[in-house]
Amino acid sequence: xxxxxxxxxxxxxxxxxxxxxxxxxxxxxxxxxxxxxxxxxxxxxxxxxxxxxxxxxxxxxxxxxxxxxxxxxxxxxxxxxxxxxxxxxxxxxxxxxxxxxxxxxxxxxxxxxxxxxxxxxxxxxxxxxxxxxxxxxxxxxxxxxxxxxxxxxxxxxxxxxxxxxxxxxxxxxxxxxxxxxxxxxxxxxxxxxxxxxxxxxxxxxxxxxxxxxxxxxxxxxxxxxxxxxxxxxxxxxxxxxxxxxxxxxxxxxxxxxxxxxxxxxxxxxxxxxxxxxxxxxxxxxxxxxxxxxxxxxxxxxxxxxxxxxxxxxxxxxxxxxxxxxxxxxxxxxxxxxxxxxxxxxxxxxxxxxxxxxxxxxxxxxxxxxxxxxxxxxxxxxxxxxxxxxxxxxxxxxxxxxxxxxxxxxxxxxxxxxxxxxxxxxxxxxxxxxxxxxxxxxxxxxxxxxxxxxxxxxxxxxxxxxxxxxxxxxxxxx
Length: 477
Ligand code: SF4
Description:
By secondary structure, this protein is an alpha+beta fold.
């Protein structure tokens, strides 16, 4: 089966002054390490693609090899995948013939169909959705179309969420964002080196000293070339479906996505949750790190003080790793077990712990157990993302429906508060509060119908009027 789970970070740079952009690309990838921690890679014209497993910071160990990589154009990628697929062969960017290299953030739901369509030319079905799309793009280019036209033809065949960075053999860079805009992508300008940059998140622009220009529009492909920046729409404007999960968990708090500060959205969602729950307690504690701004918002709204009660063991082997995007459950749990309680904050107190989401519930159980062992009088949990009951086909690796706690313990027609009380029992919390779609939409501050909540409400209509059969089966089970 074609690998369809690519939830990653992209970086691309082209200097009009001829400056070497490889150091900047490595830095831009490091700043997006939270989007993918399994493998990474860069591509410059005229050199084999450079890919490695592990964190981008590992590049320091390869400085000698990388010293031969330089150029005024480069693209890079950090990857987050699933069990069994976290192998160097699937690291990106991927070279496609001699024409271009390609990197992808998203998921192509119809990867099997695209793979089958390229199989006769490729000699076999390809295992990666990115490679399948790349080969299809190569097919259109070989028909004599330019990249803009070729991409337009490709886009008609793609179902799913995608942002692509493409580097052609002449050093031109193309970045494209799917017509619904599920995943973020933005453009920037680094004045000192005269470099146009593109990144999944604006935090990467800031890390390389680039000014944010704008988000890439959904349905737009942008070229960085000799003539500067040019772009076309490859698809008509349609209602967007920005991923709401990016705002509560996935993106870096310093980023702005689609005009919204992630930090401010997280703080506001904490306020919304405090208003909705109307609960009481002695102390508000964040689950580190993504829930910290929300805990602050909760504390400000409720008047209950926030304190640090759970600290990540930053110096351990897994210190910088995020649990959710670890590819295997035991590895996720290991990360959570490295969150150490501070007894002085917890002992004898009614604790309200704030988290960004509950997926399987395993991490929540570990956290609650740890707070109780540290002497908490009671533990209430408030979660900023609504109940996740459905799979995501648009780039976030939620497990199958049966593994989703809200689906396992509650009925689809249960209200948010009915679901919350069943989840409280399942994870051992004294009380449990979920946000709902209205509350999350209000906190993000974008029109609700411009956001995606499909993992909450099962509405995939913006993805496709008809999901491929395999996806339909997954959505039902
Ligand atoms: S289904 Fe959920 S995780 Fe996936 S894109 Fe939509 S909001 Fe994001």
